[in-house]
Amino acid sequence: MTSSERKPALQIQNVTKTFGRKTAVDNVSFELYPGEVFGFLGPNGAGKTTIIKMIMGFFRPDEGTIIINGYNRKTHYEAAMSSIGGIVENPEMYNTLSARLNLKMYARLHKGVTPERINEVLELVGLSERADDPVKKYSLGMKQRIGLAQAMLHHPNVLILDEPTNGLDPAGIHQLRDILKKLAHEEGVAVMVSSHLLSEMQLMCDRIGIINHGKLLQICSIDDLMHRAQTSSAYRIKTSDPAKAKEILSEAYKNRISNVGSDTLDIEIDETQINECVRTLVSGGSDILGVQKIESSLEDVFLEITGGGIQIE
Amino acid sequence: MSKIFALYHNEMTKLSRKLSVWILVTLMTVTAFFAPILQHRELSEETLSEPYGKTEITKARDTEKNNLGDPNRYVEHTTLRFTLQNTTAELFATRLNLDEEMLHSYVMLSCYNAMLANYDFDKYPLKDTYLSSYAYLQYTTSYSSVCRLNTEPFGKRDSQWFQAYTSATESLDLAKEALFSHDFASLEALSEKTDFFNKNIVHQLAKLDPEGKMTIEDAERIANAILLRDDYMSNLQMGVYKENNSYRPLNAEKRRQLEDSIKILNYQIENNALPTNMTSHATQARQFGQRGARFLLIIMLVIIAGSSISQEMATGSIKSLIIAPVKRWKIFTSKLLALITWTLFGSILITAFSTISTGMCYGFSSLSPYYYCSGGKVNVMPNYIFTFLFFLVDNISLFVYLLGAFTISCLTKNTGIAVGVSTGFAVTSGLSPLLIEIFGRQRWIDFLPSSHMDLVGKIFPYLNLCGYSGSDESGLFGISSNSLPLSFSLCYLAILAFILLFIAYDGFIRKDIQ
Question: By C-alpha distance, which of A65, A77, A68, A75 is closest to A16?
């Protein structure tokens, strides 16, 4: 089944939000489908949290429409919000109350959440034993877990998690990944996860939206991205005189030579062109000490999409 | 509706788990319960008195006899009169040769002897009835005057002396008549002569109590009520009323209040319905407890209302409300409803505990009913209904305090500012009279919130006629009232509440939550 045949669980249409003079989110549109994990990727300050806060009702968009499960959030607020769950920034609870009571209070605001369901989600996030402790005694990781439990409590079919791996230990991250994948792929929940960590996205997401400076730059499947990383190939030629080599190659491979080092230069060519390239060099009188394929990583692709120069943590 | 109820349920859960709230509730309850008891102990120590009967008089007579030493010096009252009429009075003064102290003992000894010989102690207890004790006081005073005048050497007695002597003996006669025969006519004549007691008052008392058995306490209360009524009547005639120790011209509302006050006083005097000392003490003890606890309640309300929104913003717990499928106005409303519930809860606690402890100390029947005029007729509202209405009215101003703190909390999203500003507002709620004292009567003072916060004094203007104390009598614990009409104060508070609500609503509902 392709995306176009399915009904989107969440539609963001031409949403814009400005704070004073700064445009935090600029005409962003995307859709989120049941059964997928959608990664929202961008550097710090890119506008990820602003979009999530607009979806979750913290901010009103200046322009644009948010439709959740077919309900326009503006006109049918409660119907739209009843099937969405999430964590915005850090999950914050009533610190002096126990996790169980926090969940119980949250459950009162939704229809049909039973005490058994509360136990079930506590079990799922591994907090059953500490459920009656006040939340203020929890570590950040535990708070993240209880936040997830709250987000899942009412069986939402859209789950939005803002940097959910913050504070989790590696085992916790692994567990979270499994839970989210299971929710999406087995229960058909539309999951959206924001992060500035590409590696995390790679392991968790089916599709990725890349955002920078408030603009959604690209949406692609993780497979596409991987493919792009693999297909875009370059080779590093080791030679005693890279300047001379560049001169020899510049005519035939104009604009494809980069990173001229002390004894290397990089050239963007594919496998079929290696022979030709080497021949040109040799015939031009340059020595060749070695030829090595440069593996392009996802990060390179990401930097390329976001325009580079952005620090990725 | 179910969402609002669920949110309200959550708010109540949160508030009921706050330690600070329970500490203040405990303090409030303890104050409401124990303040009347403390007040009672203080008052009961003050009002302790022994009956004054035959045994005490005999004992006092013997003491004076010992003081005097030689029993021959003692002369019966009748002897004195006898000698006087036969112009042998000089014998009394010269023969006895008394110094100041001995003269006093002599006078008292003579009075006691006369009492023991002629007074019917069983029929008229001396110390407890106003007629007897007043007559007795006049008797000793005029007896003393006669004796003192008698010590004057015969050669120095001029016409002035003679006048004084005649007057003193006349007073003595009247006092004797009043004391031994319980004769009201003599007492009235004596009042006119000595100017010690207002003649109108004696007349009124005689009418109310022909047997002369009324206690001093009751008589004094009636006397005070009569004086107050006369004062009101003269104010009405002059077209002024008294406020903060100065006179101001009457307006229609004040005129009606003065007229009604006079009616109520007349009703109370004629029906022996004036608040008794017991009633006043009970009412004031309860008022003391209520007002002290109410202050703590205001502090509690200001803290919980001031932190209601801002603390959730600061800790981020507001997030779990925002991501829930509820509209923001429902969150706003539920928070306000929870705060109102705590206000009512606090007020009920205060009213119940102060009433119970007052009832335990003074008896439940001692709490004064409320007197008011309607259609020119004086009506009596039983205390339990009045207590309930008082409680409701008191909650209006509490609601304004609460709304003030809530609004600042919504607006600044800062608990410290919200609690600080509102506490300042609550503490200075009695500021208006002070401002009037400093700046004189200025129009702008009428537009300060503090001029309108005490609605109780305006809705129940006759509290002072029912045993309650006003703010001038007991500071923070009294009920203050000013000349601003009730309708103005109500409109003012309604507009203030509306503005505060609008600002709070706008601050919470329309604005983004960061």
Answer: A65
Q: Are residues B378 and B416 in the same domain?
A: yes
Domain spanning A3-83+156-228 has what CATH number?
3.40.50.300
Candidates A75, A109, A163, partner chain B, best to mutate (most B CBs within 10 A): A109
Computed on alpha carbons and rounded to an integer, the radius of gyration of chain B in Å comes to 32
Do B362 and B434 lie in a common domain? Answer: yes
Range of the domain at B168: 54-120+129-203
Q: What is the pLDDT along chain A (313 residues), one digit of tens a residue?
A: 444 467 899 999 999 999 988 999 999 999 999 999 999 888 888 889 999 999 999 999 999 999 999 999 889 999 999 999 999 888 888 989 999 999 999 999 998 899 999 999 999 888 899 999 999 999 888 888 899 999 999 999 999 999 888 888 888 888 888 889 988 999 899 999 998 877 788 888 999 998 888 898 888 888 887 777 776 678 888 888 888 888 888 888 877 787 788 888 888 887 788 888 888 888 888 888 888 887 666 677 777 777 654 433 3
Q: Which residues pair with A209 in a beta bridge?
A: A40, A219
Q: Given an 8 Å threshold on Cβ–Cβ distance, is B13 in contact with A105?
A: yes
Among the partner-chain residues B10, B323, B514, the one whose CB lies closest to the CB of A108 is: B10
Closest Cα to residue A93, out of A154, A149, A49?
A: A149
Q: Tell me how close the Cα of A237 comes to any Cα of chain B, in angstroms.
A: 52
The reply to whether B265 falls in a domain is no
Binary contact (A78, B325; C-beta < 8 A): yes
Annotation: CATH topology of A233-295: Alpha-Beta Plaits (3.30.70)
Indicate if B337 and B284 belong to the same structural domain: yes
Q: Which of B188, B203, B218 is the last residue of a domain?
A: B203
A146, A176 Cβ separation under 8 angstroms: no
Residues B265/B232, Cβ–Cβ less than 8 Å: yes
**Predicted complex ipTM:** 0.81
